[in-house]
Amino acid sequence: MQGAAPKTLFDKVWDHHIVQARAGYPDVLYIDRHFIHEVTSPQAFDGLRRRGIGVARPQQTIATADHNVPTQNQHLPIAEPLSRFQVDTLQKNCREFGVELFGLGHEKQGIVHVIGPELGISLPGMTIVCGDSHTSTHGALGAIAFGIGTSQVEQVLATQTLLAARPKTMKIEINGPLGKGVLSKDLILFIISQITTSGATGHFVEYCGSTIRQLSMEARMTICNMSIEMGARGGLIAPDDITFEYLRGKAYVPQGADWEASVRWWKGLASDPGATFDTEYRFDAADIEPMITYGTNPGMGVGVRQHIPRPSGSHHAELDKALHYMGLQEREALLGQKIDYVFIGSCTNSRIEDLRLVANFVKNKHKAPHVNAWIVPGSQAVEQQARAEGLDRIFAEAGFDLRQPGCSACLAMNEDKVPAGKYCVSTSNRNFEGRQGPGARTFLASPLTAAAAAVTGSISDVRDFL
Length: 466
Known about the structure:
The protein is α/β, with parallel strands linked by helices. Helices cover 31% and strands 17% of the residues.
């Protein structure tokens, strides 16, 4: 009798969660963990009310307020009427339907994709969904995690399952050590620039190779976070000893004998030798340098010392439109481009590791006088840790504004907006027109490149300072 065919990590987790499968139809997939926030959940709860039903398994849903929250004076009522209404509605819905909520003022409050891993709510081998595209972040733990729409949020609340078509699989392998000043954010911006913002459409991506294995958990989260920016359904990384040590002792993680049993199972969560993927890419880490975007999608990125490229064919009109919005020109150098704002935060780069990197760089330096520099931690725990380590004093002495947790200027759905026409170097994940505020112009970069721009007042190569 022949053995079973080798499987990818994705297929192992997906198959483990199939409740029902029928040829020609989406699978019925069991969902282990459901995260909700104030933006995509109100209509879903209204749907439950209209149908006269409750949340099927409320203990598997966790709510937090993040998109609309202010990042200053969180002890006061929210000033923006729409934001206040959305946050109040989330509180009302969670109370009515018995869902645990980490609201403003709660010690566990924060950006949904930061608190899930940091609390151990997200675990290897899980299926995880949220009404937010960057749910792919949780895949760094070896989970299948992806964003869903509001109607699907209602479906999961009502049944703890989801109708989902199985995506194709993609392997992206990166080998070799990262160069000086190069972070995981540069790595993922490089990959997106190579395969484009639609290059992984319809796929779930597994990242592997020696470069990935050497990364910390928080760096892995940055990579999986931006999988969606190349069109992927999500991204994941096989759990290993780095994953297990990161999770050990966290609030929601199994303890004692249950922990040991969990680790034994998690160790089997890897793609089998000989497993086949629908698409494969390989990259050499030596080819990656500090990256910066120049256009209005995350795929419009180059090394910080390179010039804006000249595209051909159908992409020319797209680039022309993007450069007109950005106030830039083809073949123009980005190095030395004056900037006005620096935003270090978002579910991509707001963890304690990111803040430590920035603090280490700006210590005994000061931001340029004309630059507004915002640092927004991803959770209450990150903010408290930063203050405990004295990072707040370093930021204050450097002229940086350390704020309170929230999505902040990543999407300008709150009070933190970049004014029209101003340039912002941002550690967030999207640089679409108006993403950080109407008319705002965004350069995506790593925390180190953002910190260097804050100090010099212009786009700079962080390697010149290291």
